[in-house]
Amino acid sequence: MQVSVRKAVIPAAGLGTRFLPATKSIPKEMLPLVDKPIIQYGVEEIVDSGIPEVVIITGRGKSPLEDHFDRSFELEHVLRTRQKHELLAIAQRPSQLAQVSYTRQQEARGLGHAVLCAKPLVGDEPFAVLLPDDVIQAAIPCIRQLLDIHDQYQASVIALMEVPKDRISAYGVVAAEDLGNGLYRITDLVEKPKMEDAPSNLAIIGRYVFTPGIFSSLEQTGPGAIGEIQLTDGIRHLLRTQPVYGLKFAGTRYDAGDKLGFLQANVAFALQRPEFAEPLKEFLRTQDWGA
Ligand code: UTP
Questions:
Q1: Residue range 50-73, pLDDT digits in tens
Q2: Which residue among 84, 115, 119, 244 has its CA within the 20 to 30 Å range from the CA of 205?
Q3: Is there a domain that residue 2 lies in?
């Protein structure tokens, strides 16, 4: 029987230390790419992929996320009174996108632990996971690309990206059998390997579709060296009992949780906006970049 995916989980309880000092009092998920918070791009990708329900894993200091996806009656009233209809639609959109619920991860005990926190809200069904820092521009939403594989194989699927050898040690990396057309059957995963130990140049990106079996795998995965439950360890456990596929997705990914990646994403997204593309290109063209 084919089971369709109705829920997506967004872990957003991390401390965002790479983005200090901005993230001391602002969740990094609320930093804007042009004019839209990073997390809204994630929710839009989920909705555009055909998934109607979103579970956001939050923590202390993350209440702006809940406000963003809620209605703001005062703001709406002011915009309506001033007949600012376009701005009103922009302000209302986040609250109309999806059915969003929240649960708290009380301590930042790792990405695997954050995903496990969603178990009571997801239940015994397949679900997607989207890491909001990874912002992806793609003709077909990345989660949709994974869902198409899930629908075909009824198995877990993770998004993969080729990474140059000298940068591979920053990523989780897979060992995998090439099935053709960008599809792989995963045989092992390693978190941040040394360049010479990396089993491939295929890095794990923050998009996944899981069977509910990942929950019991995570429950059986102990905390690693730094006391965190790693998602990659949970997937390695899942591999013992179920096939897990990898898909080299079509699209461009930006690491917006990193300062340089965030700047690059801002430029890339601004260049897609008709009102900014030409003036921004002109600005970049006319800068004196020095020697
Ligand atoms: P990161 O590895 O980017 O960690 O987490 P972080 O804490 O957010 O940021 P840095 O590295 O300190 O700058 C990847 C994703 O997993 C979530 C984060 O919110 C982010 O979306 N996460 C991580 C949790 O929800 N809980 C955790 O315990 C760890």
A1: 999 999 999 999 999 999 999 999
A2: 119
A3: no
What's the pLDDT score for residue 58? 97
The span from the CA of 237 to the CA of 249, in Å, is 24
Tokens linked to 142: 């990345």
Whether 81 is covered by a domain: the verdict is yes
Q: Could you tell me the residue range of the domain that residue 196 belongs to?
A: 7-286
Give the integer Cα–Cα distance in Å for 49 and 8: 10
- The span from the CA of 242 to the CA of 162, in Å, is 24
Nearest atom within ligand 1 for CA of residue 110: 28
For residue 102, report the distance from its CA to the centre of ligand 1, in Å: 16
Best of 15, 104, 254 for a ligand 1 pocket test (most atoms within 8 Å of beta carbon): 15
CA distance 129 to 206: 8
What is the tens place of the pLDDT at every residue in 110-141? Answer: 999 999 999 999 999 999 999 999 999 999 99
- Per-residue confidence (pLDDT) for residue 246, from 0 to 100: 98
Pocket test for ligand 1, best of 103, 111, 171 (most atoms within 8 A of CB): 111
User: Residue 291's pLDDT is what?
Assistant: 64
User: For residue 252, is it within any domain?
Assistant: yes
Please give the model's pTM, rounded to 2 decimal places.
0.95
Mark the ranges of the chain whose per-residue pLDDT is less than 50: none
Kindly give the number of the ligand 1 atom that is closest to the alpha carbon of 132.
21
- Looking at residue 84, its pLDDT comes to 97
**Beta carbons of 211 and 155 less than 8 angstroms apart:** yes
What is the total count of domains within the chain? 1
Contact residues of ligand 1, CB 6 A cut-off: 11-19, 57, 105, 108-111, 113-114, 131-133, 257
CATH of the domain at 163: 3.90.550.10
Give φ, ψ of 58 to 5 degrees. -115, -175
Structural domain includes residue 223: yes
Give dist(CA 36, CA 63) in Å, integer. 17
